[in-house]
Amino acid sequence: MSEAGTSLPRGLRPAGPEEAPRAAGVRRVAVHVAQEELDELRRRVAGTRLPAAVPNSGWRYGADADVLAGLLRHWADGYDWRSVEAEINSYDHFVAELAGIPIHFVWVRSGDPQAIPLLLTHGWPWTFWDYRDVIRELTRPGAGPPAFDLVVPSLPGFPLSGDLPAGVNWITTAAMWAELMQRLGYPRFAAAGGDFGAAVTSQLGHAYSDQMMFIHLFGGFPLSAWSNERPWDMFGPVPAEITGELRERVLAWQARFASHIAVQTLDPQTLGYALNDSPAGLAAWLLERRRAWSDCGGDVTASFSADDLLTSFSLFWLTGSITSSMRYYFEAARSGWQSGWAELPAITVPTGISVFPADQHPTARTRSWREDYYNLVNFSEHSSGGHFAPAERPLDVSADLRATARLRDLEATR
């Protein structure tokens, strides 16, 4: 999908010469998918061979057959990628080569010389586009103060960035992001993220504290979480002292995440052969995560419209990146993170945390452990929202980011 000789990731093409890059080593690009690729996608979707389903089983065995079939019909006959592509291209897109990998990012500058440079990192199976409404809110005229310059990169191996080489993980990604922000002219900046984006952001706060103004996490977890001899079973057995109804809730919470962590940590390439060849298979795998991890009450369309779901599926399909995105788990499980110092807090920069109920472990919803682990200046506990908080609750996320920016200033004056 990139033009010959450009060495750009799939789904990108060079922008016109009048749209000059704004920093050294950075190329202006646009999102573009060739029409023959869209035609091929529709052909494959229309020819889907669905497996037999147990009658009236709903989501009991995995993705609901009727819900999936309805999405596939819309993908083949109604979904308009070109309108989505035009909306995506209403923002400025760039590519920078970092550690030998072409990294895509959106860059939105406010024009305010006092603006806070804010780096937003997504997780899996998010894409950069899950920040769409947060970008709009944080850059809305009259929305400040504070004003923000936003940099929203696509993780290596994810849609619109280059393939994931062996050994690249959230630790090396943090180093790449620190270099990117320096290259864009931001010697100090703030960062936020959820899921793998929270790991990258936390590592920035831990290892690059001299460059950080503040960090903000959606959920968050200790950086040692992947330092586990059984990373495919990150949560382990439920402790014996947890009993009764709480034990049932913990087991149910673990079950929502166990299947993808196991396969994507151990043998992602094997699953990738299927998902990279079947848009229906890819849609089923991602649909299950969107339903299980969002605060949708079992109805995935309560959190995401059909078009929003299909945009996410299309970004993975049209860039051929589902397999490399899943390999991010494999590499994370072998990252071997170690703290740079023994004492707490592990992260000394001012930290804000947003807690959304559908994304939090039943025993880890309080702020107590976070007060020990982070230099916590803002803790916002919400009554709704889940794993995809920037897409599910963009106004809450935006308000929390602004609050952390203000509270960080108060912290600095103490």
Can you walk me through this structure?
By secondary structure, the chain is α/β, with parallel strands linked by helices. It has a single domain, classed as 3-Layer(aba) Sandwich (Rossmann fold), CATH 3.40.50. Helix content is 40%, strand content 16%. It contains 14 helices and ten strands. A ten-stranded mixed beta sheet has the order 1-2-3-4-6-5-7-8-9-10, with helices on both faces. Helix 7 crosses helix 11 (322-332). The longest helix is centred in the middle third of the chain and has 23 residues, at 244-266. The relative contact order is 0.14. Residues 1-6 have low confidence and may be disordered.
Strand residues, percent:
15-25%
Task: Report the helical percentage.
Answer: 40-55%
Sheet with the most strands, sense and barrel status? 10 strands, mixed
| Shape, per Cα inertia axes | globular
CATH architecture: 3-Layer(aba) Sandwich
Detail the topology: elements first, then pairings.
Blueprint: E1 12-14, E2 26-31, H1 35-46, H2 65-77, H3 81-88, E3 93-98, E4 101-108, E5 116-121, H4 132-138, E6 148-153, H5 170-183, E7 189-194, H6 196-207, E8 212-218, H7 244-266, H8 268-275, H9 279-293, H10 306-319, H11 322-332, E9 347-355, H12 368-373, E10 374-381, H13 389-392, H14 394-413
Parallel strand pairs: 5-6, 5-7, 7-8, 8-9, 9-10
Antiparallel strand pairs: 1-2, 2-3, 3-4, 4-6
